[in-house]
Amino acid sequence: MGGPRGLLKTSVLLLCAGPVLGDVDTCKDSASEGEARVEACNAAIVDDDLTGRDRAELYVARGNGQSDLGDHKAAASSYRKATEIDPEYEFAWRKLGWALMEEDEYAGALDAAEKTLALDPNDAFNYALKANALRHLRRFDDAEDAITIASALKPGNDWMIRELGWMHHDRGNFTEASETFKRAIRKDLDDPWNHYALAYVLIDLDKTDDAVASVSRAIELDDTVAQFYYLRGLCYRNLDSFDLALIDLDKAILLEPGHIGSHYERGLVLLAQDEIDAALTAFEAAVEAGPRDSRGHYGVAIATAKRGESSRSIEALEEALAREYREYPSSETVSALLEDGAYISALRASRMIDAAKSR
Prior knowledge:
By secondary structure, the chain is mostly helical.
C-alpha cells in the first residue's frame, strides 16, 4: 500500500510543478496578454518557494498585466506589494509611482519618486517621475528643476523634451509647449506619444483640424492606446463630427473599459444629439470608472437637469465640487441647466462656484 501511495503523491507533485514553472514564465513574459498574464502571475504567486526579489518580480509582472488592462488601482496594489517584499527594488517603486499617477494620487507618486531617487540618484527616469508628480501638484518651479536634471542625465532624450513641453503647457504657455513637442518629434519621429502631445496642445491653440492629423499619426504608430482614440474623439466632437467621435470613443472604451474621459466625452456627444437617457448612462459609467473624477458627476448633473430631476442634479453638482482634484463648473454648465428650466440647480451651482472660488 505504501509504495503505490508514494508513487501517486510523487506523480501529483510532478504534475503540479510543471504548470507552476509555466506560470512563472508566462507571468514574466512581457509579450503575454494582459488577462492571461495576470492569471499566470496569480498562479505563480501561490508558490511559496519563491522569495525576495524573485517573488517581488512576480508582483511587478502582475501589475504590468493589470496596467495593460487599464486597472491601475490593482496595478498599484501589486507594485506596492513588490516594494513591501523587497524595499530595495527600485523598478517596483518607479512602477508604483506611475500607477499612482494614473490614479491621480500625485502625492503618493512623489513619495515613490523620492524612494527611487534614494536608491539611484543618477537615473534620469526617476527624476522624470518626480517632475511629473510635481507638475500635477502644480509645484512648477520644483518640477522644472527635476526635469532639468533628468535632461542633463539623458541629453536629447525625446521623453525628457516632451516632459518639458508638458511643463510649458500646464503653465499656459501653449505656443512654447507646441514648439517643444515639435522638437521632441524631430528627435524621434516614430514615438506616438510625441504626436499625441502635440495634438493635445493644438486643441488649446484652437487648431483642431491639425490636432486630428497629429493624433491620427499617433494611432498609425500604435493603434492599441485608448488615450489616442479618446483625444481624436474629443476633436471630432469639437468639430461636430458626432458619428466619427462615437466610433473613436467606443474604440477607446473597448481598449480600456475604465477610461473615464471616453465615457464622459461619449455622454457629451449623445447630449449634443439629444439622446439624454443614453448620455446619462455614459456619464454614470464615467462616475463608476472614476468616482473621484469630477467630469462624470458634472455630466450626470446636466443630464438629470435635462430630465427635470432637479434634486439629483444638485446632488451630482455637490459631488463634482467635492472632488479632491476638481474643476469648477463652467458658465456653459450653468447655462445648460438654466436653458432646461432647472433654475434651482443653476442657482445652487452658481452659489457653490462663488463659495469654492472664495476659499
